[in-house]
Amino acid sequence: MPSVKNKNILVTGGAGFIGSHLCDGLLEKGASKVVCVDNFFLGKMENISEALEHENFVLYKDDARHFGVMQSIMEKEEIEVVFNMATIALNYSFFNPFDAYMVNVEIANTLLELLKVGVYKTLIHTSSSEAYGTAQYSPMDENHPTDPTTPYAAGKAAADLMVHSFYKVLGLDISIVRPFNNYGPRQNSEGSLAAIIPATARRIKEGGMPMVEGDGEQTRDFIFVKDTVKALILAYEKDESRGKIINLGSGKDISINSLLRQICEYFDYKGEWEHRPARTSDVRNLCADSKRAREILSFIPEVSFEDGIRMTLDWYKNTFKG
Ligand SMILES: NC(=O)c1ccc[n+]([C@@H]2O[C@H](COP(=O)([O-])OP(=O)(O)OC[C@H]3O[C@@H](n4cnc5c(N)ncnc54)[C@H](O)[C@@H]3O)[C@@H](O)[C@H]2O)c1
């Protein structure tokens, strides 16, 4: 069974939310080198401030789409494993749909080309539950049809098809993980690409009001980021995951109204909510069937939503100025 210990590992998007926690997790597990490649579209230096202290961490401010750049980094750093975490957040679909789609496809294309010619050995590719679109049945297993509702999600689904087909035709060493909604410290809280939990915490801390789009009864399956990191590492370490798509979720869905109520309760906020029209093409329901992750990765999320949301909001409370 392979192990991340003593491996030279590259993380695309390693200065982002999940990628930075993954870099920390790989360093903790004894990787000999963790190479972060991030173009800082949304990545932040503060996300990798702990990793930067570590002698085994290397940062490249570069674009993971570029074959030549990635090839020279991988050869110089003698990379064996790549975790593909780079993307541009879903909401970018509403401003620049073409790039929101293409970034997912182009990075996957570059990584597959480099894997094909043997520049590195193993690709752990990250998909998204958004590739499924709204639940046609629930919980959603990996055989659920993909019916993306945004260019971001279409780019994810297209990249998954490409990655999976390369596994089938060339027998390359590839696993695909499909996380549901992640939450935890370091998620983007600013501007139009912000995620709902940090954006709401910031609004309340800065004297604003929570904002809900549509009726708020849309549901999501939230998984704590450190659980996702454990599962990503297991996806590399378990050979049985090769050629598979594996959901990473909690198996429980929560409505956005219920989520916002819990955030309000934490901050003791009793004021009004701002109501905006439903976003066009917002997915209505997402809830993971996690059987495959249990069977193949022996993975069960350890952090309950109650504990995870408290830890997350504690972190944002201390991070945002009131
Ligand atoms: N956050 C979630 O809830 C969630 C859910 C399902 C799947 N995912 C997937 O997990 C992965 C990580 O998501 P995240 O939430 O950490 O996103 P994020 O936006 O916080 O991180 C993505 C990182 O990729 C970087 N990036 C973008 N384009 C790049 C490029 N061309 N070259 C190099 N770096 C580039 C960004 O600067 C950013 O640091 C993504 O593949 C995403 O689709 C996330």
Q: Mean pLDDT, as a whole number?
A: 97
* Secondary structure tally: strands: 13
Q: How far is it from the N-terminal to the C-terminal residue, by CA?
A: 49 Å
Bound molecule types: nicotinamide-adenine-dinucleotide
Strand order of the largest sheet: 3-2-1-4-5-6-11
Main sheet record: 7 strands, parallel
Calculate Rg over CA atoms.
Answer: 19 Å
- What series of H and E elements makes up the topology? EHEHEHEHEHEEHEEEHEEHEHH
Percent in helix: 25-40%
Which regions contain 5 or more consecutive residues with pLDDT less than 50?
none
What is this structure's SSE topology?
Blueprint: E1 8-12, H1 17-28, E2 33-37, H2 49-52, E3 57-60, H3 67-77, E4 81-84, H4 97-116, E5 122-126, H5 151-170, E6 173-179, E7 181-183, H6 196-205, E8 211-213, E9 219-220, E10 222-224, H7 225-237, E11 245-248, E12 254-255, H8 256-266, E13 274-276, H9 291-297, H10 305-319
Parallel strand pairs: 1-2, 1-4, 2-3, 4-5, 5-6, 6-11, 7-10, 8-13
Antiparallel strand pairs: 9-12
Structure summarized in a few sentences:
The protein has 10 helices and 13 strands. With 322 residues, it is α/β, with parallel strands linked by helices. The radius of gyration is 19 Å and the shape is globular.
